[in-house]
Structure prediction request, 226 residues.
Amino acid sequence: MNLQVCMPYEKCPFKCDMCIANGRSRYANAYETEKEQYLATLKKAVDSGLYDDYIITGDSEPTLNSHWVKDVLNVLQGQNTELQTRNYNLKGFNLKHLRTLNYSITDSKGYLKSWKFRKIDNNNRLVILLTKDFDFLTSKNFDNMGYNQITFKVLQETADLKTNEWIKENAMTNFDNIYQIIERYNGSETSIRIDTNCQDSHGRYEVFRSDGQFYENWETEKPIER
Ligand code: SF4
Prediction:
């Protein structure tokens, strides 16, 4: 099971049309009000051995709060940790304890630039959110852009109606080319997969929210009692 470590909410400047965080509830910021207790709770979770992996993520872009990222990475030292980000300029971040650096892109412009995003010595993953903008990709023209892991992600409905309308109009609908790309890379050093349904991950993760409590999933508003 993995633990999704969720950054304290900040207004996200990226304003992605398909943002999965749109419509989600906001939670208190215990990192700000009770930092020591918040970090100690996370450390206790790490020491419990309950989780195999840790995902640094959020209802906003995690790297907006570099102090939080630094403190959390410090607690997670030596663990199998992944940073999910849409910040393509990670200058100044100490990423040596990361196992996986995961960039999400939503359009062809991001794809063409992705070869030059900062990479780490461990796993570098590119997550391609399947908007219609990627309809041009074929097994002949696709390049892994220097990433050893690629995930094609089918867009998921959110808790927000407006976002869902956008998704309806702009999501890729025919995945034949994507499956052919996966086929082409089969057996190569680049691991490529398609993620068709995030909801299936039920029971495979928990969320550590900014209020310093643990939740069974992203939808539930009641913390786990332990
Ligand atoms: S970067 Fe993430 S949190 Fe920010 S708008 Fe985009 S999807 Fe939402």
